[in-house]
Specification:
This protein has helices at residues 9-12, 14-17, 21-50, 53-78, 83-104, 108-135, 141-169, 171-190, 220-246, 255-276, 283-303, 307-334, 341-366, 371-399. By secondary structure, the protein is an all-alpha fold. The protein folds into two domains: 9-196, MFS general substrate transporter like domains (Growth Hormone, Chain: A); 220-399, Growth Hormone, Chain: A, CATH 1.20.1250.20.
């Protein structure tokens, strides 16, 4: 049973009131909003210049592949050097890249390459950011997980929307200036923060011992498998949502945007409510198994009715992500020393990128056939297959106990 003594919303807001964690979270949000603007601006600008969908696809693919490499490098550096200085340096480089795009945005090759680099730099600083804020607020990891969940969800919703709005009203230059301004805010907010800890004295390696590899919490295999599968299913269903809604003559012009917005709204509610519950570690396997099957069932339901059913489905889908996201984050971080957190988050984020990449590959293999059928087959298949795949590492872990 879950604890019947709820946490209060004020406790969930505690990281924002902390003298170190609060500015860090604000800095991350500003940087993520800037990244959200660029994530829309660069592909749209590339298409405006080339009128070539393949060029846009290459920008997305390049950003993802380079992002995997940069996340790995960022995690390695975050566990060896001062995380605050890595973040400041990253923000400054991103400002320079955005300024360079501002000057030469009419040269499509330059625009595409710098856009890919700028997007990948957002993956580079993620391990240092995630590890840094948790290393100074370990006494309430659940509250930190909620604040990061809510902050990332809002930035992923507001940033791209702001980027599209600015591109349509003030053009490439205006959108780039907004992104640069947000990066300036991120730097100014984080500079006064004291240097971030890399690990307590008792966690340091003995003399003569090499740097340790990241320690593995016992359920990490199931957590990583759940991340891969959910990223894969989200990638497929969100991509299919565009043609699915276009084929419905009764759907309004902005239906896809409404669906994405209501999904994000559901994710914020789900994450916040999950943060109010006092979870036990023993709940994690059940949450992973139930969520895996529920995702597929909810995704399929949204494809079987009129256009508005996808709004209800994606809202429920967003809510369901709350318990899994909050509980897995708290569980894994609590069992990983500060000196290994950067590499942990690099691996974790790259697992999600690989899941999304697998979704894109499946779309390419499927070809020009009805994409709604693909989404239905994969969603209904996930109802059975996803829990089984997650159960495998859970059973292996139990055998080794």
């Amino acid at each position: 049973m879950l604890s019947m003594t709820p946490r209060t919303s004020m406790k969930l807001l505690a990281p924002l009131r902390d003298r170190q964690a609060g500015p860090l979270l604000a800095s991350f949000w500003a940087a993520e909003l800037a990244d959200g603007i660029i994530s829309v601006l660069v592909p749209v600008a590339v298409y405006a210049v080339t009128q070539d969908v393949s060029a846009v696809a290459l920008v997305f693919l390049g950003r993802m592949l380079l992002g995997i490499v940069m996340a790995h490098l960022g995690g390695w550096l975050a566990d060896r050097y001062q995380r605050k200085y890595l973040l400041v340096a990253n923000y400054l480089v991103r400002m320079l890249c955005a300024t360079a795009i501002l000057v030469w945005h009419e040269q499509v090759l330059f625009l595409a390459v710098l856009g890919i680099v700028l997007g990948a730099l957002g993956a580079f600083d993620n391990p240092a950011a995630e590890a840094g804020v948790r290393s100074i607020f370990r006494h309430d990891l659940q509250a930190v997980a909620v604040m990061r969940n809510v902050g990332q969800t809002l930035s992923q919703m507001i940033g791209p929307a702001l980027g599209g709005l600015l591109f349509g009203t003030v053009g490439v230059a205006g959108a780039l200036w907004a992104s640069i301004g947000l990066m300036v805010i991120a730097v100014l907010v984080i500079i006064p923060v004291a240097p971030l800890p890399k690990g307590s004295p008792r966690e340091k390696n003995p003399p003569g011992q090499k740097t340790s590899k990241p320690e593995k919490p016992r359920l990490i295999g199931a957590v990583f498998m759940a991340t891969f599968l959910s990223s894969f299913l989200v990638g497929v269903v969100v991509a299919v949502g565009v043609p699915h809604l276009e084929q419905d003559s009764s759907a309004p012009a902005g239906a896809y945007g409404y669906a994405l917005a209501i999904y994000s709204f559901g994710a914020v509610i789900g994450g916040w409510v999950a943060g109010l519950i006092r979870w036990r570690d023993r709940h994690l396997p059940r949450v992973l198994l139930i969520s895996a099957g529920a995702y597929g069932l909810i995704a399929a339901a949204g494809m079987l009715g009129p256009w508005w059913t996808i709004l209800i489905s994606w809202f429920a889908w967003g809510i369901c992500f709350g318990p899994e996201g909050i509980l897995t984050d708290r569980y894994v971080v609590a069992r990983t020393p500060d000196r290994d957190l950067g590499r942990l988050y690099a691996r974790w984020s790259n697992i999600g990128r690989l899941g999304a990449a697998a979704a894109y590959v499946s779309m390419l293999v499927w070809g020009t056939a009805n994409p709604t059928i693909l989404a239905l087959v994969l969603s209904l298949g996930a109802v059975v297959i996803a829990p089984l795949l997650i159960a495998i590492p859970l059973l292996r872990q139990r055998q080794h106990q």
